[in-house]
Specification:
- The structure is a single chain.
- The chain has about 325 residues and is an alpha+beta fold.
- The protein is about 35% helix and about 30% strand.
- The chain has helices at about 185-200, 210-230, 235-245, 250-265, 270-285, 290-305, 310-320, 330-335, and strands at about 10, 25-30, 35, 45, 50, 55-60, 65-70, 75-80, 85, 95-110, 115-120, 125-135, 140-155, 155-160, 165-170, 180.
- The chain has a 16-stranded mixed sheet that branches.
Length: about 325
């Protein structure tokens, strides 16, 4: 299963005993947990002790959690709204594929055995005897390591995680620089919530995953500031794209796009990219507090592109909507 630059794989040292009659079984479940057998079309509710074969797909509902026992020393605990396909072999590889994690939250505690992988839809990871938590949404993934070591591969780059470290990925881009999350209260809070979401003993919350995503989005927005100031604008851009993927709040998305616009304008010398971000705010997020700055940013972009008429049009709109705005006095000197 190789999809160059589009998939992230998680290499985990675990092997399935060929003498076993089944690949795994459900050790614990709560709420809605369903299974679709390989080559079948329908999901059915599972029971504790039920076997899971290679190629089967399990999913949890908004009230569901599940613990999958792989072998004596390996389990995977899934939080709400998660989906995972068990096992198989990666074509052209000698190692085993533990499975593909499509979405949601999972904590994998895996015995130290050499030569296996876990795939996600966007990237690639490698682990040695490990306790790792993953959360996946669309193009974005977060990886928190508590024990062992992990190589997170995205595209052609690999980030190596040690104990209490994390990274994040976005489709087609290299992983973000490794960060020690014990030093960040925001990440520690996110890591604690991951534990709650995958704990079978704690009742699931319909808002749990959304709250985790917003915590991660807020942290990574701040991290993007640091990366930009540290002279790493490409990493800052990746961080902001991840934040946009995670957040569902209009005001936060507007804030992220405003930062992306500023990053393109001031750090990456991409005026067209900056203008696209500002115009998205103007079209889609004009009811957020970031509309004013987006209008002003667009004016500066049009001036840089020598589009005086468009700059004047947007300046007129700015004065109309924000007659006492913070940029009013500077507009007349910019747009003549």
């Amino acid at each position: 299963m190789r999809r160059v630059c589009l998939f992230l794989f998680v290499m985990v040292f675990w092997m399935i005993d060929g003498s076993m009659a089944h690949a795994a079984l459900f050790e614990k479940i709560t709420g809605t947990v369903e299974l679709r057998r390989c080559n079948q079309d329908f999901f059915v509710q599972v029971r504790v002790g039920q076997e899971v074969q290679v190629g089967d797909v399990l999913r949890t509902g908004p009230d569901g959690k599940a613990v999958l026992r792989l072998d004596a020393g390996s389990t995977m605990s899934f939080g709400e709204d998660s989906e995972f396909m068990l096992g198989g072999e990666i074509k052209g590889e000698k190692q085993d594929l533990i499975g593909t994690f499509y979405r949601g939250v999972v904590r994998a505690i895996l015995s130290k055995r050499e030569g296996s992988f876990i795939a996600t839809p966007r990237t690639m990871l490698g682990i040695r005897g490990t306790d790792i938590s993953l959360t996946q949404k669309g193009n974005a993934g977060f990886y928190f390591l508590d024990e062992g070591s992990v190589g997170v591969r995205a595209g052609r780059r690999t980030a190596v995680l040690g104990v209490r470290q994390m990274t994040a990925t976005y489709a087609g881009r290299k992983p973000l620089p490794v960060f020690t999350f014990s030093k960040s209260s925001g990440l520690s809070q996110a890591r604690d919530r991951l534990s709650l979401l995958t704990s079978i003993e704690i009742p699931p919350s319909l808002k749990g995953q959304a709250q985790l995503n917003e915590i991660l989005a807020r942290w990574i927005i701040n991290y993007a500031h640091y990366l930009a100031d540290a002279g790493k604008p490409e990493d800052a851009e990746t961080a902001l794209l991840i934040a946009e993927e995670l957040s569902s709040r209009q005001s936060v998305k507007g804030e992220i796009l405003l930062q992306i616009g500023g990053l393109y304008f001031y750090h990456l010398n991409d005026v067209h990219g900056a203008l696209r971000s500002y115009r998205r705010i103007i079209r889609e997020y004009h009811k957020t507090p970031h509309y004013e700055n987006a209008l002003y940013g667009a004016i500066r972009c049009f001036l840089q592109l020598d589009q005086q008429e468009k700059a004047a049009e947007y300046a007129h709109r700015y004065k109309e909507v924000f007659p006492d705005g913070k940029h009013v006095q500077g507009l007349d000197s910019l747009v003549r």
